[in-house]
Amino acid sequence: MRDLPGAHVLQTWEWGEFKRETGAWEPLRLAFERGGQVLAMASLLTRKMGPLKVMYVSKGPALDFTDMELAGQALGDLEARARRFGIVWLKIDPDVIAATGLPNSVDDRTDQTGRALERMLRARGWRYSDSQVQFRNTLTIDLIKSEDEILAAMSGNTRRKIRAAAKKGVTIRSASIDDLPLLYQLYQVTGARDNFLIRPFDYYRRAWAHFMRAGLAQAFIAEYDGKAIAHVILFHFGRKCWYFYGASANEERARMPNYALQWEAIKWAKAQGYASYDMWGAPDEFDASDSLWGVYQFKRGFRGQLTRHIGAWDFAAHPTLYYVYTQALPRMLRRI
User: Fold this and answer.
1) Which of 275, 3, 268 is nearest to 144 (CA)?
2) Among 19, 91, 221, 294, which residue's CB has the most CB atoms within a 10 Å radius?
3) How far apart are CA 159 and CA 59, in angstroms?
């Protein structure tokens, strides 16, 4: 899996086991071979929803989607399994780029592989999903460049705030499993301040500790005067490192700890040999109405490449059940 094109941490064995333990999902791993060589893999998560079953291939399958024959083979196998096992909907979300740059800007560039895959999916009866589980858009930083080049590409304001954090006494240290209660405490503070729901500690303890032990996660804590004031948690796999979690205290935010943390995380990912740093999330609509607009303003200062993926697609093995589950039932529930 690690060496396949599009390899993603949400397709790892460890992620499947984590979802089994915490989300009532049952993982199944598939490998697609040609001439005795594994060319594609997919980790399928299946879950019962009342009398119905759904199947999700989170950020997968992983394969070279320029090989349309291979892509067709993998999709055909998934479709057949959905029909055989009575799956009401099968969702895939491959890490395939549709375009880069802001839509309708001079930097807007269509990715031909992504567009070809979209055409193939439509021809096979798949439909763009109304339920996008993962972020469709993100910002990625090219780690093949030198540290000086990465820093020079950032906005002047972002570089100034990175330097300001050091001048204002912010220090950064690696976090260990013993720090998990502290990481969660900061995450609680952030959730309350920014008005988003967080899960119980046991959920994050399992995720963070499990992936740290597996060598797939790394956390950093920003401190001032010996007190933790912010953190980031990175997941990493294959050729990419992702900024999955971030949090900060209500105090000392003027010391710019989040800027220092991002720079430390970028340098760490580069030193580990990763090719790109994914800031994990950008708006669907690129204006102030989008809930991610504020955090996007922070992220864009690091001058990563805006990357728009093809998103999640659904295959309805049983169209009537799919309609009831995705359209009719939600409408009925809204009336109750």
Assistant:
1) 275
2) 221
3) 32
Q: CA-to-CA distance for 319 and 190, rounded, in angstroms? A: 41
What sign for the dihedral angle of Cα 309, 312, 316, 322?
negative
Q: Which two tokens stand for residue 114?
A: 């992504």
DSSP 304: P
Q: Is the pLDDT of residue 48 over 70?
A: yes
Any long-range contacts for 293-297 (C-beta under 8 Å, 24+ apart)? 296/139
Strand, coil or helix: what is 37?
strand
In which band, very low, low, confident or very high, does the pLDDT at 336 lie, cut at 50, 70 and 90? very low
Full-prediction pTM beyond 0.90? Answer: yes
- Distance separating alpha carbons of residues 2 and 6, to the nearest angstrom: 9
Q: Where are the alpha helices (DSSP H) in 12-58?
A: 13-23
pLDDT tier at 80 (50, 70, 90 boundaries)?
A: very high
Burial tier of 171 (Cβ tally within 10 Å: 0-12, 13-18, 19+) = middle
CA distance 15 to 214: 11
Beta-carbon contacts of 69 under 8 Å, excluding residues fewer than 6 positions away, are none
- Whether 246 contacts 219, CB under 8 Å: no
Round to whole Å and give the CA distance between 165 and 55. 45
Tens-place pLDDT, residues 93-141: 999 999 999 999 999 999 999 999 999 999 999 999 998 999 999 999 9
Rounded distance, CA 149 to CA 137, Å? 24
Structural Rg of the chain based on CA atoms: 21
